[in-house]
Amino acid sequence: MLLGSTLITVIGLASSVQAWGGLGHKTVANVALQFLQEDALAGVEAVLAADGHKESDNPSIVDVATWADAFGRKKGGTFSKKFHYINAHDDPPFECNVDLERDCSEKGECIVKAIANYTQRLIRPSRNVNDTADALKFLVHFIGDITQPLHTEDKERGGNGIPVAWNGNGNKNLHSVWDTNMVKKLAGSDNEENLNAWTDIIVNEINNGSYKPLIPEWLNCTDPRDALNCALKWATDSNSFICTYVLKNDTDGWELSGSYYRGAAPIIQQQIAKGGVRLAVWLNQLFGSGEPGKLPLDRAQVIIQN
Question: Whole-structure pTM over 0.90, yes or no?
Answer without folding.
Answer: yes
